[in-house]
Design brief:
The chain has about 180 residues and is an all-alpha fold. It has 3 domains: about 50 residues, no CATH class; about 30 residues; about 45 residues. It is about 55% helix and about 0% strand. It has 5 helices and 2 strands, in the order E-H-E-H-H-H-H. A two-stranded antiparallel ribbon has the order 1-2. About 0% of the residues are buried.
Length: about 180
Amino acid sequence: MGNTNSTRKVTVPNDDPAGVIKVSEAVVQRLKGTSEEVPRQKSPVDVRSNIQSSAPIVYPPQYSMAGSLTALQIQQAKEEELRKNDEYWMQRLQRQQETHKAMDFHMQQQYDSAVSDVKGSLFACPDPNDEVPCRNLKDKVTECYKNNPKAVLKCSQEVLAFQACVDIKRMEKIENRA
């Protein structure tokens, strides 16, 4: 049994980082094919020194079901992430819309306040039914300009009278408002 050459290969898992497999002297003798009985040693022997060629080390595949995920689990995880992302952005969009509504309301109040301030500070537009002040003097100035198109300085007395009338009417309006 030990004298015939065998084509079997021996695979030994090696946990040693140095790559050394330690076996007993009896295993070495059996691998060499000698049938001599060697007294058993207590410490293992370095195989590299005793074996000419070493067989490739093949580790059995290790399968672990605990760490693997199925396609369904991956898809569910992705869908959950997408759902959470959608919720986050919907909440953020809603907060932003509420903020914009509050800003719009505040700006509208400021605009209305500014409009009322401007309306209060400006003079009221004259009513179209009101009589135009100093109309007769205005007509005299216009007639003078038509009669003297090349000598407008001849109309200076009429212009001064019209200007004085307008100033008086303006002062009356201001006094009536106050």
